[in-house]
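It is worth pausing here to work through a concrete case rather than discussing structure prediction in the abstract. The textbook approach is simple: state the sequence, then state the predicted structure, then interpret. We follow exactly that order.
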Amino acid sequence: MRAPSSTIDEQSIVVGLTEDPLSFIPSQVKLLGDVFSLKIKDTEITVVNDPTAIESIFNDGENYKKKKNESDEQEYLGMMSGICAMFTPEQVTSYTQCMSDAATRSIERIKSLPPNTDIDIFHEMMRLTLEIEIETLYSVSLSDLTSDYPELDLDDVCRDLMLADRVYGFDPVYTGLNECLPPFTPQSGSEAAKSKLLSFVTKVLTTFKKIPKDKTLMDYLVNNMPDEQAVQTALVILGAHHEVAVPAISRAWQLLSENSDIEKRLSSELSNTLGGRPATQADLPNLKYTSMVMCEVRRLYPCVWMVMRWSREEREINNYLIPKDSVVLMSQWVSHYDPRHFAQPLEFIPERWTNESIQAISGVPYFPFSKGIRSCAGEQFAEMQDTLILSTMAQHIKFIMAANQDLSPLARRSNAPQNGILGKVVIK
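Step two, the predicted structure:
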């Protein structure tokens, strides 16, 4: 049986997907059910919210691909195999000291501000994670980079990344549906920001070549691509890292500010486990509540709002036919808020993620990093980074969010807040 089709016109579908997907997709699920189809031009889009179907799609890597054309898929998988080598458990573990050191520098930056200074915690987390990426994935020390380019301002790089993110194709919609959706009109200044970011990554590459290191992402790019392609790829990875890393840790500060009891419980665990020192990889098994907090943050604010696959052949899942050559969309924004799977879905409840609770909700559609053989290569990296940052910093600072601000996400790229997250920081 074919899935029910939306009766709204093509233009409304385009507007819904491109301008307000976080409202459009849930509204269509409510109207049409867990599996339904949309059509734009000659492309059929099947939206799937059924847990069993989602699991089947993620596990069927032979049929459900990331790229429409097989040659593009093979090229993508080849590149990812090289990139994934940078994210083995051993490699990720080797990055932990850098992550804690960057968190400590962030604390010192915040402490150096005049009392009662307003701060955008989203921007600060972007700056922090940018430093981590430069030193881990790109294998370039900050001191070497700033010595080569003393004019470089990482805060400016962060602002450029925010602008360029809206045109450069980091978002899931335009990566997967750009053949049937209209071209995105860039925000003023975004093209200039894109150019400046390419210049920045070129500087990073130049500094890396002075003291190359084996088994790093930059090493892989340099040895497998011409410089221009290596720079372009490194920039895309920079955008992807921003999508995965920054919204989650930023939203953690927001949610802790809104939930004082949870903030107090987190502080108690950190005080008992760390006693004021930076967190290390060895501490992670003992930071159970910290990990639960981050799991719940990613449920409420997954790093991206949607995962897309191309169906190579017709498949029947739960009595519904998914056509050949169709786009399959699975939305975390829908699944993670489904009251059938998560009681009180709008509430921030880290206790959902105790060992006992996890067993009770096993099989529910929770996929902040996607799932299956094409899940996010940097999942373990992001999870460790978030835990080390939060556990190191939350011992020394408390974020107090400003009232009456628009924190709604801009789903064209990730679930990052449109206007940052403003507030003040109290030094503990």
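Step three, interpretation. The chain has a mean pLDDT of 88. DSSP finds 18 helices and ten strands in the chain.
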